[in-house]
Design goal:
The protein is mainly beta. The protein has a domain at about 5-60. It has strands spanning about 5-10, 15-20, 25-30, 35-40, 45-50, 55-60. The chain has a 6-stranded antiparallel beta sheet, with no helix packed on it. Strand 3 (about 25-30) and strand 4 (about 35-40) form a beta hairpin.
């Protein structure tokens, strides 16, 4: 491989360093123009460029790879990351995302949250779940606990079903409605120290 190397000095254009590799059709240049430092590597198909100014560094290339033992990125102002294709974040150890202010996660299509254990908690405020249809399933038990009161309601109907259904109250239990039906295909038992029907 034979290289052609040139250094050009110009009073107004600055310094240009050029390395030409004719065998592989690659030209490398560094230009110091008094304002920017521009490094360019131009091949037959792709070109990568690094432009360094006194207040910024811009990298333009097809593939950008950083391989290091430890990476720290910090900004004193806004930070934005955008991908026009897939965006993947993965970790072989713990992964933590925190915000000292509001945090919002949105998706224009389906969104899923999975884990061996999943906790959703509002430490000092309400937690709300809303949607056209909401379903909750469990392979074993489902429990809903409230420190004060709990309610289950529906604008049209509400139902509780199971192979065995138990309704208990430490105090008073009230069942009422405009029309009430108590029905069983087997035995129906109503008992208590004081039972009033009608």
């Amino acid at each position: 491989m034979s290289l052609v190397c040139k250094i050009e000095l110009h009073k107004t254009d600055g310094v240009t360093v050029t390395v030409e590799n004719a065998d592989d059709s690659i030209t490398q240049t560094m230009v110091f123009d008094g304002t920017n430092i521009t490094t360019t590597c131009a091949g037959s198909d792709e070109t990568s460029t690094i432009t360094q100014a006194s207040d910024s560094i811009t990298i333009s290339c097809k593939d950008f790879v950083v391989d290091a033992e430890t990476i720290t990125c910090k900004s004193s102002s806004d930070t934005s990351m955008e991908s026009e294709a897939k965006f993947d974040i993965s970790s072989t150890d713990d992964l933590t995302i925190t915000s000292s202010a509001k945090m919002t996660a949105t998706s224009d299509s389906a969104m899923s949250l999975t884990g061996s254990e999943v906790d959703v908690e509002g430490s000092s405020g309400d937690v709300s779940v809303s949607g056209t249809n909401i379903s909750a399933t469990a392979d074993s038990n489902v429990s809903l606990d409230a420190g004060s009161s709990a309610s289950l309601s529906g604008d049209s109907s509400a139902s509780v079903e199971g192979a065995s259904v138990s309704v208990e109250a430490d105090g008073t239990l009230s069942l009422s409605g405009a029309s009430s039906t108590l029905e069983s295909s087997g035995t129906t038992t109503v008992s208590g120290s004081l039972v009033s029907i009608g």
